[in-house]
Amino acid sequence: MAPPPPSEPAAPTRTDRLLAALGGILAGYGGLAVAALVGVVVRPEAGPVAAVGDAVVDRTPAAVKDWAISTFGARDKAVLEFGILVLLAALAAVLGRLALRHLGAALAGVAAVGVFGALAAVTRPDSESAADALPSLAGALAAMVLLWLLTRRATTGAGATTGAGATTGGRRRFLVAGAGVAVGATGAMALARTVGSTRSGNATASRNALRLPRPASPAPAVPAGAQLDVDGISPFVTPNRDFYRVDTALVVPRVDAGGWRLRVHGAGVADARTFTLPELMRREVVERDITLACVSNEVGGSLVGNARWLGVRLADLLRDCGVRPPSAGGPADQLVARSVDGMTIGTPVEEVMDGRDALLAFGMNGEPLPFTHGFPVRMIVPGLYGYVSACKWIASIELTTFAAYDAYWVPRGWAARAPVKTQSRIDTPRDGARLTAGPVAVAGVAWAQHRGISGVRVRVDDGPWREAELGAEDSPDTWRQWVHRWQATPGRHTLTVRAVDGTGAAQTEARADTMPDGATGLHTITVSVEPAG
């Protein structure tokens, strides 16, 4: 008598599928933990989340980047990282469910994710070794092993014909194994953070130990009238913690000042040199108040700030290396600054050497540069948007031409040259504010670096432009506060501000987006005024 044919395994239940998805997520978590540990040994920037995040940033259309910056501001990096983690978790859940029926295909999917992360790491602009692929590959291998293990635990007895007891036993084994993976991965993550903090501690210690030199050319005291006594207006000097941050670095570089070097080379550099931080600080140190603005700042936006910077004149350093501006017969018209993370910023040589206070800065508001703002050294060039002048974590300066080289942002749709446009902003009252009829201080800031602000005008509804009271001018390179004393009447009103730069040119009313070289238009808000009493 022939034996009965083997029974077909039962289809996975809803609980089986949920456990499989959980297994995929746990395997992915374990893989990320292993990648983090390996990344501590290789370098944190090579980790899969950072590498994939940078690849996403590099390949994201400029308009989308601009939207992210205007929407999330300095939180755009955290939002991107969170989004990547959510996508990885979703993908891990899908692969976990796939493993119930097709374990080989699921493992191949995990391997493909690891290869993608490895390719993203080794193709980063700052990648110097194939070792950058190791965190992603090691993480993928760990995730594959864990997925295989958890799938075996989940399916042992599940769907078998031996009854519910075997299924329950398999699920119990899965939960025990899953808890072990979760605890182990969390421990590995904690270890990676601890070891990483210890390694980055050298950079922190070097910053803490840095003693800023006294400037040979100190900045004048800020005029008493520069800060107007108006509630809600931006402080004249922006505290470091509040200073805007826009860059592409998901992992903020933490550079040890003791090992930092700046190389100056390229066309027209008669004496190529490499500088250490102590050598830089032995040069003539200057202190200047300078306002920086981001090209992604929309009309009325907050991506602008004013600080007191300490550093050395970039033009003097270039001249000591034999560099001449194009107007003096120099062959290079572009200075390409490279950051330690591979970012390139292209700056016109003529503007750097035309007498303005272009700096290699190592101090900000009386302390060494914060890591988020470029420690140990960054570039500052008044009158130019940051993306063409303000290289953070600078590591080299190459003299070349605009015809020969496009810096990072140019192929992505931004202009190669971008002087700051005259802008003004209403800080108070806020858009949509409900006010009481009577005296209202309408106030804010205006800026046109290297040209200065000579006037600010305010218009209520369609009425005439009225001159605002200006705060004292610190320098043409800083913003200027203003206030208009408005006798508010009941009703709904629009308030508009317009600045006039130091040359007498009024801020244009023509509306333009931030791309390709900065937004234009007038900041306008709407307020509601209630009758007094």
Oligomeric status: single chain
- Helix content range: 25-40%
Secondary-structure element string: HHHHHHHEEHEEHEEHEEEEEEEEEEEEE
Main pleated-sheet profile: 5 strands, mixed
Report the uncertain regions: 157-166
Q: What is the global morphology?
A: globular
User: How far is the N terminus from the C terminus?
Assistant: 103 Å
Tally the beta strands.
Answer: 19
Strand content: 15-25%
Q: Can you count the helices?
A: 10
Structural class by SSE content? alpha+beta
Radius of gyration: 29 Å
Question: What is the compact description of this entry?
Answer:
This protein is an alpha+beta fold. It is built from ten helices and 19 strands.
How would you describe this structure to a colleague?
The protein is of the alpha+beta class and 533 residues long. 34% of the residues lie in helices and 22% in strands. It contains ten helices and 19 strands. The strands form four sheets. The protein has a five-stranded mixed β-sheet. A hairpin with a 6-residue loop joins β1 (261-266) and β2. The radius of gyration is 29 Å and the shape is globular. The protein starts with 13 loop residues before the first helix and ends with a strand. Residues 157-166 have low confidence and may be disordered.
